[in-house]
Amino acid sequence: MTAWALPILRAQGFLYDSSYFPGAYGPAPHLAGRAPAGGLVADLGEGLWEVEVPSVPVAGRSVPWGGSGYFRLCPYAMFRLGVRRILRRRGQFVFYLHPWEIDPNQPRLGTSRLGRFRHYRNLHDTEARLRTLLQDFKFGRLIDVVDQPHTMRATAGLTGAYAEYTRVGAAATLRLPENVSFQEGALVEPLAVGLNAVAKARLEPGDSVLIVGAGPVGVAVALWCRFFGARHIVVSDLIGRRAERAVEFGATAAIDASDLSIPAASATAGSQDCDGCDRGRKHPRKSTHLHAPGWSGPSIQ
Fold it and tell me: Are residues 102 and 196 in the same domain?
């Protein structure tokens, strides 16, 4: 992609370009100061976006890993491993495939041995590999990513969650049923996070749990712990009033962590055989750690 082509693409109504691959084509002047810190989508201005072809570093070089020949020629397990590495590092993965790559019966043209290998190798397996890839990862439409390229990160034109209003893409929204108010709908996210925390803790009926932090998510965790049959639910917070309020939502005891030792107070507030506070253990086995300075025990975030 060269800078002179950008105004032409805008004039023709294009929303995004996806031709830049780092390392192969040298510097990208049109991305100077615009490249995202994490994701693959960069704002070029005036309604045009650049979608970077993903790559993985191998021996100091960037190897394309967005699909096509690399998808066909690499063993699938290796390609999947590369995708997971990109997702951990960049948070996004963009996949592409040419239509002819799922047509094993296409005419064979006379070309070099290398050309035949690059063009025709594994054509008979490509469709099955694609189906497996779609099962292994959750994909969406590129236009939805471009519609919200910030992936909820703050930008100069999108100041973030603390603004009174903000813009999100349609894919990031959920239509509420007619009988659900906006106030009730606002509880969906903290309740979902709380449920995920309890699932990760592998809570079982009769367990005793220490929840560090009595914010909205901490209270949601307490609610779910009560729902799934926890015996003792101890909530601590640096603000005592918040911890006490958690008792109204399912907690069996509250700890003011501003002047009490959490492990010691947990044993008193729960029971002497509390799963998270038995003698000889410095930190609880099961906890959701939201914001407790100095805490270094196990956590679910």
Answer: no
Q: What is the pLDDT of residues 162-195, one digit of tens each?
A: 556 666 666 667 788 889 998 898 888 899 999 9
Q: Find the angle CA(40)-CA(45)-CA(38) to the nearest 5 degrees.
A: 20
Is residue 179 a part of any domain in this protein? no
Contact 270, 208 (CB under 8 A): yes
Q: Does residue 225 share a domain with residue 119?
A: no
Q: By residue range, what is the domain housing residue 242? A: 188-289
Residue 256: exposed, middle, or buried by beta-carbon count in 10 A (0-12, 13-18, 19+)?
Answer: middle
Residue 177 lies in a domain: no
CA distance 234 to 213: 10
Q: Is residue 297 part of a domain?
A: no
Mean pLDDT of the chain: 75
- Do 278 and 291 touch, CB atoms closer than 8 A? no
Following DSSP, what letter does each residue of 91-148 receive, concatenated?
A: S----B--GGGG-TTSPPPP--HHHHHHHHTTHHHHHHHHHHHHHHS----HHHHHHS
Q: Is residue 178 part of a domain?
A: no
In this structure, the answer to whether residues 108 and 220 fall within a common structural domain is no
Give the E-state strand segments of the chain in sequence order.
16-17, 41-45, 48-51, 55-58, 61-64, 208-212, 232-237, 253-256, 287-289
Mean pLDDT of 280-290: 35
